[in-house]
Design brief:
This protein has a single domain, classed as Rossmann fold (3-Layer(aba) Sandwich). The chain is 38% helix and 22% strand. The chain has five helices and seven strands, in the order E-H-E-E-E-H-E-E-H-E-H-H. Helix 2 (77-87) crosses helix 3.
Length: 198
Amino acid sequence: MLFWKKKRETTLIVGLGNPGENYVRNRHNIGFMCIDQLARSYNIRLNKKEGQARTGSGEVAGKQLVLAKPHTLMNRSGQAVSYLVRKYNVTRARLIVIHDDLDLPPGKIRIRQGGSSAGHRGVMSINDSLGGRDFTRIRVGIGRPAAIRDKDAEVVDYVLGDLTSEEEKTIEEVLPRVSEIISSLLTEGPEVTMNRFN
């Protein structure tokens, strides 16, 4: 008698940013920084090119993970994410997206399921490509200086600006916390994690 081993479900964790050396230290690339930290923490090599993303896979807390950094520009992130969702047969319940957030103070983290993109172009692109927004988001604050109103040009200049030395110190403290949040999401689920970390 044959017993078929049930295939384990994969959790896809995507960090948003822009590819290329010019963007590496930008505020808008905090999602990429978080993925790099997770890769180091979990000993996962981001050594594959899948569709329009750089990826790496591994096992954490008994869960199968794929880490991904889309190599489209930010406002086309959905193209890369939708390809990976299809390839790994990932439901939106098992998709986690990490991104910067203007409306949170620098270094503040909020975990959210669904909800508005609040104008974040990468999140908007994913929502459109997946036809829904009921996935988990980890929002990492970059702050909105008083001088930055809601004018597109000012916002773009700010988010595509490099982190200051003070901001870099704040983000360095935040990155290990994102790893803790991911571990909690994998082992205890969104509700417990939101209650603990928000």
